[in-house]
Structures are given as structure tokens and as C-alpha cells.
Design goal:
Helix content is 80%, strand content 0%. The chain is an all-alpha fold.
Length: 301
């Protein structure tokens, strides 16, 4: 190996490793998110929708606050608070509340349609927010993947629109905005601090919501209900968003968002395993098609 080659090799490795690490972190976030709807369905066995969302946020804020205090993290700079408010409104309050309300009338497989649309919406909002313009090939693959997921999830639900669809489409928009702003902030702050401060910012509202919800909604404690609440708080809200924002900061919001094309299919698998829902024989074909679309979006800019 020549001196020139040995000098350039570390640089090449340094360039590749962040991409691989970011992709792995974003994928871990997708796995955590894929359990959100089944966990929410379990949680609704014990709590009302308003109580479940508020308690989920309180528990997640407690975990985040403990980490922030243990690490003695200083308050974010004033210019970051507006972005944190967008993250809080989108992923801490808006998306959980709207999807939980939707799941009171829809199955998890039907609700997964919102996740199928989320990557494309996130990529579009990220392009508008950051000025990045992905290639036509990227957009073609993203649209194809979204179309496959939408067709598959609608087929699973019998192509019938439920009263919860308005909640789902609203959740799609607010979550995409939260993901986009969170991905931008994760380039300036560690990802766990982004979601941590967003959760802490919502704590007063979450505590008030918990008090009101528990006062007006019945509670029937069960193992499933408590497990669903704990996972939604610790797994989906804190751990999932922590690794997701960190991965998004390293590989970019458009590419990271396309990894979520696999999330509805994972959710359907969990729905069968945990909730006893029936999975269509078309699932393997849809999964292969989605994986091809993901591979294309990861190779083009």
C-alpha cells in the first residue's frame, strides 16, 4: 500500500462509518416505532385515550428528566426552544393523541396506513424546510414504496375508510413536521436531548391532562394495559425517538424517512403476534417490494 493510499484510507472509513451507524440507529428507531400501535391497543385495554396519552408523556418525561439531571445538561439556547416546541407538538402530543383516538375505532393494520404515508410526507417537508432537493429517482422510489404500503394496508382493512381516518391524516402531518424539525435540531444537539427537552417542555400539560383524564375516564388495570403504557412511554416515546433523531442527523431526514416504509409491515407482524389479527398472504410480496424501494432510496441522492 502506498503512502498516498494509506493516507486516504482512514478518511474513506471515517466517511462511511457515520452513514452505517446512522442507518442502524434509524432502523432501531423504526423497530421501536413499529410496536407503538400494538402497545397503544394494549394500553387502551386499561386506560381511556386521553389518560393513556397523558400518562405516556408523563412517564417518558420522567425518564428524560432523570437523564438530563444525571448528565447535568444545561438548558438549550433560546433559539432552540421554538424548534423544540414544534417537536413537542408533533411527536409528543399530536401524533400520540390523534393515533390513539383513531385506534379506538380502527384496527392497528388500518391505522398503519398513516405510517406508510409518513416517509414521503417527512421527505417533502424536510426538503421545504432545509432546501435539500433529492433526485427524481429518489422521489420515484419513495412514491412507489408509499404506494405499495398504502395499497397493502388498505387491502388489509378491506379498503373501507373509518371515522378515525381524519385523526390519522392529521397525525401524519403533525408527526412529519415534528420529525423534520427534530432532525434539524439533532444536528445541533444530541438526539436524546432533543426529545428529552421536548418531553420536559410538555410535562405541565401532561400532568394536567393525566389528572383530568383519570378523573373522567374509567381505569381497568391489566398486565397488557400496563405493558402497553410502559412500552409506549419508554420504548416508543423516549428510546425510539432518541435513536431515530440521532440516526436522522447522520444520514439526513429524506433517507431516514424512507426506512420507515418497512414500519407498517413490521406493525402488521406485531399485530398478528401480539393482538391475534390476521395477516394477508400478500404480506411477503409487499415486504419484498418495499425493501427494493428502500434499497433504491438509500443508494441515490
Amino acid at each position: 500500500m502506498t503512502a498516498q493510499n494509506s493516507a486516504t484510507l482512514p478518511t474513506t472509513i471515517a466517511v462511511k462509518n457515520p452513514v452505517r451507524r446512522g442507518t442502524a440507529l434509524a432502523l432501531l428507531g423504526v423497530v421501536a416505532f413499529s410496536l407503538t400501535f400494538p402497545a397503544t391497543a394494549w394500553g387502551l385495554e386499561s386506560f381511556g385515550p386521553w389518560s393513556l396519552v397523558a400518562l405516556r408523556s408523563v412517564l417518558a418525561a420522567a425518564i428524560a428528566g432523570a437523564f438530563l439531571l444525571a448528565r447535568q445538561v444545561p438548558l438549550p439556547a433560546r433559539e432552540h426552544w421554538a424548534g423544540l416546541a414544534v417537536v413537542a407538538a408533533g411527536v409528543v402530543v399530536g401524533f400520540p393523541m390523534l393515533t390513539t383516538l383513531a385506534l379506538t375505532t380502527s384496527t392497528t393494520s388500518h391505522a398503519a396506513v398513516v405510517v406508510g404515508l409518513l416517509p414521503l410526507t417527512t421527505a417533502a417537508l424536510s426538503a421545504l424546510r432545509t432546501g435539500v432537493r433529492p433526485s427524481r429517482t429518489f422521489w420515484a422510489a419513495a412514491l412507489a414504496g408509499a404506494a405499495v404500503v398504502i395499497a397493502f394496508t388498505l387491502a388489509q382493512s378491506g379498503s373501507a375508510l373509518s371515522v378515525g381516518d381524519a385523526y390519522l391524516f392529521g397525525a401524519l402531518l403533525v408527526c412529519a413536521a415534528g420529525y423534520t424539525e427534530g432532525g434539524r435540531l439533532a444536528r445541533l444537539l444530541p438526539g436524546w436531548q432533543v426529545i428529552g427537552w421536548a418531553l420536559v417542555l410538555c410535562l405541565p400539560l401532561s400532568l394536567a391532562g393525566s389528572a383530568v383524564g383519570l378523573a373522567y375516564e374509567p381505569v381497568h388495570l391489566s398486565g397488557h394495559g400496563l405493558a402497553g403504557l410502559i412500552w409506549a412511554a419508554a420504548g416508543s416515546t423516549f428510546l425510539g425517538l432518541y435513536v431515530w433523531y440521532r440516526g436522522m442527523a447522520e444520514i439526513g431526514a429524506p433517507r431516514a424517512s424512507q426506512l420507515q416504509l418497512a414500519q407498517p409491515l413490521l406493525t402488521l407482524v406485531w399485530s398478528v403476534a401480539l393482538l391475534g389479527e390476521h395477516l394477508s398472504p400478500a404480506a411477503p410480496a409487499a415486504a419484498c417490494a418495499v425493501l427494493v424501494c428502500i434499497a433504491v432510496t438509500q443508494r441515490v441522492k
